[in-house]
C-alpha cells in the first residue's frame, strides 16, 4: 500500500514538473493600427482579419483595430512595437529597410507592374528569409507582405507632364531612402512628413505636392487641397502587416500559423478591394474638379533608372526578376 502511494505521489510530482516545463499560452490581444480611414481597403481588410482570427483561434488571439492614426503615425507605431508594446501596423516595406536593406526593393520605382507580381514575390523563399532576419534585427514580425495599396501618383497644384515640371516642388513622401531618392530623381524636392499632416500641409502651403494611391487620395480628402493628379504610378505601394515580436512569441505555434495564413488571405482580400475601388476613387476625385492626367512614363522611368544602383539594390532587383521569371 505504501509503495502504491509512493508511486502515485511520484507520478503526480512528475506530472506537475512536466506541466511547469511546458510553455503556457494565455489569450493574446494584438493591437493593430493604420493611418488610413476605416473605409479604406486596408481598414476593411483588417476588420475582416480580426473577425476571422478570433473565430479560428476560438478567442485565444484577439485583434483590436485602430484607424486614422489613433495609435500614431506609422513610424511611431513601428517604434512602439520595437520597444515591446503590444502594437502592430500596416507599413510600406521600405520603412523596414533600415534593419534589412534588401527589403527596400519592394518599393523600388517601376519594378512591379501588377499586384500579382508583388504577391508572388512576397511569398518567395528569398523574401521570407529577409522577414526572418527582420525579427532578429528589429524585434518585428512580418505576418504578410501582400497588402497592396495601389499605384502612387503625383498630386500637384500645377500640370505635370515630365520630370522637369517637378523642379523646385516640395513633394511629401515617405521617409525611407528608396522613396526619397525616387522622388528626387523624378525632379521634386522630397519632404517626409506624417501622413496625418499631409492635408493641412498642402492647405497651408508647407508643401507644394504629395504622392499617394487613389483610395488614399479620396479617403484623406486630398482632392480638396490639390488641383492635379498625374498618373505616374512610380511606385506600387506594397505594404506589410507587422507586429511586435514580444507579443507574437506569446502565441502558440498552432495559432501563429493560423494568424499568418489569415494575414496572407486577408492581404489578398484588401488588395482586391484596392484594385476594385481604385478607378472609382479616381473618378470621384475627378468629379470634385481635380484634373486627372495620363502621362508618358518613359521620361520618368529614365529619370529614376539610377536609383537601384544608388541604393545598392541591383542584386535584389535581379532576385525579383528571377522569381518572376523575366
Automatic annotation (TrEMBL):
GO terms for cellular component: outer membrane-bounded periplasmic space. Keywords: Signal. GO terms for biological process: transmembrane transport. It comes from the Bacteria. InterPro entries: DctP_fam, TRAP_DctP, TRAP_DctP_sf. Residues 1-26 form the signal peptide. This is C4-dicarboxylate TRAP transporter substrate-binding protein.
Amino acid at each position: 500500500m505504501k509503495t502504491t502511494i509512493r508511486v502515485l505521489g511520484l507520478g503526480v510530482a512528475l506530472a506537475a514538473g512536466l506541466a511547469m516545463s511546458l510553455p503556457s499560452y494565455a489569450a493574446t490581444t494584438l493591437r493593430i493600427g493604420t493611418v488610413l480611414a476605416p473605409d479604406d481597403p486596408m481598414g476593411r481588410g483588417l476588420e475582416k482579419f480580426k473577425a476571422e482570427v478570433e473565430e479560428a483561434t476560438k478567442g485565444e488571439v484577439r485583434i483590436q483595430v485602430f484607424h486614422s492614426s489613433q495609435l500614431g503615425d506609422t513610424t511611431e507605431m513601428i517604434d512602439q512595437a520595437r520597444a515591446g508594446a503590444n502594437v502592430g501596423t500596416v507599413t510600406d516595406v521600405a520603412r523596414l529597410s533600415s534593419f534589412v536593406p534588401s527589403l527596400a526593393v519592394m518599393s523600388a520605382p517601376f519594378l512591379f507592374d501588377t499586384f500579382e507580381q508583388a504577391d508572388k514575390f512576397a511569398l518567395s523563399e528569398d523574401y521570407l528569409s529577409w522577414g526572418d532576419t527582420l525579427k532578429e534585427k528589429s524585434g518585428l514580425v512580418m505576418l504578410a507582405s501582400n497588402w497592396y495599396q495601389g499605384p502612387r501618383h503625383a498630386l500637384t497644384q500645377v500640370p505635370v507632364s515630365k520630370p522637369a515640371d517637378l523642379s523646385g516642388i516640395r513633394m511629401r513622401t515617405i521617409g525611407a531612402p528608396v522613396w526619397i531618392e525616387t522622388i528626387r530623381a523624378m525632379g521634386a524636392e522630397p519632404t517626409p512628413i506624417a501622413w496625418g499632416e499631409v492635408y493641412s500641409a498642402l492647405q497651408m502651403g508647407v508643401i507644394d505636392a504629395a504622392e499617394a494611391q487613389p483610395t488614399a487620395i479620396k479617403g484623406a480628402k486630398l482632392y480638396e487641397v490639390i488641383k492635379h493628379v498625374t498618373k505616374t504610378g512610380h511606385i506600387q505601394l506594397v505594404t506589410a502587416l507587422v507586429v511586435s515580436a514580444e507579443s507574437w512569441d506569446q502565441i502558440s505555434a498552432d495559432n501563429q500559423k493560423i494568424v499568418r495564413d489569415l494575414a496572407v488571405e486577408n492581404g489578398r482580400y484588401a488588395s482586391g478591394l484596392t484594385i476594385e475601388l481604385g478607378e472609382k476613387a479616381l473618378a470621384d476625385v475627378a468629379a470634385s474638379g481635380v484634373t486627372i492626367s495620363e502621362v508618358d512614363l518613359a521620361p520618368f522611368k529614365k529619370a529614376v533608372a539610377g536609383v537601384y544602383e544608388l541604393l545598392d539594390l541591383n542584386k535584389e532587383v535581379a532576385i525579383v526578376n528571377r522569381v518572376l521569371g523575366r
